[in-house]
Amino acid sequence: MSPESSDRTGVGLTNALRSIDDWNARFSTAVVSSGTGILATHGDTHKVVRVASLTKLVTAWTVLIAVEEGAVSLSDPLGPPGATVAHLLCHAGGWDFDTTTVLARPGTKRIYSNTGYGALATHVGSATSIRFTDYMAEAVLAPLGMTASELRGSAARELPLECRRHGALRRRASATATVGPLNSDHGTPRAVPGPGWGASGMG
After folding, report:
1. What is this structure's pTM?
2. Using an 8 Å Cβ cutoff, are 161 and 146 in contact?
3. Please, what is the angle between helix 55-68 and helix 114-128, to 10°?
4. What are the backbone angles phi and psi of residue 154, rounded to the nearest 5°?
5. Dihedrals phi, psi of 69, to nearest 5 degrees
6. Domain spanning 48-193, CATH architecture
7. What is the pLDDT of residue 195?
8. CB 139 within 8 Å of CB 153
9. Which DSSP helix (H) or strand (E) runs through 161?
C-alpha cells in the first residue's frame, strides 16, 4: 500500500469511527485491527465489558491447551451417552441450549449449547485439579496481557473483556486452533490444532 493510500485509509477510518458518536448510545467503543496490530480506535478502549458468548472462544482455546498438555483428550467421553469433548467443543453433543435435555444423537447435528461449554470447564477442572478460572487465566489470558479479564461464572458467557484486547484475542485465536466441521462420512467433529498454540507449565 502506498503512503497516499495508507493516508486515505486512515482518514476514512477516522471519519467512520467518528460517526459512532451519532448513535447516542450510553457507551460505545471500537477497535479496528489487522493481522499486524491496531489500526484505529474510538472511545474508551480500556473499558471492561461482558462479551457474552465470545466467552466460548476463550473456553474452547483453554480446553485445547489442556488437550495439548495431555490433561484431557478430545476423545474423552463427556455429555450425553456417546458424546465426547470434541463433540461438545463443536456444539455437536446433542444437548439443548441451556439444559441437559438431549435433542439429537451426538455427532449428527449442531445445537448451540451453553450446557456443553459448562461441562467442558468442569471436565478440565476435574482432570487438572486446577480451577478452570485459574487455568484459563494462566493459559490464555495472561499471555495476551488480558489482566483485566477473569471468568466470573459460566464458561459459556461470563467473561469480561477490556475492549482494546479483543483484537489481540481474535488475531491470536485465528492463528492457533480450529475445530472443524462435522465429518460427512462419520458424523463426528474433527479438531485440528494449528501452529503456535498452547501454554507451558500449567502444572
Report:
1. 0.70
2. yes
3. 40
4. -60, 130
5. -85, 0
6. 3-Layer(aba) Sandwich (3.40)
7. 31
8. no
9. strand 160-162
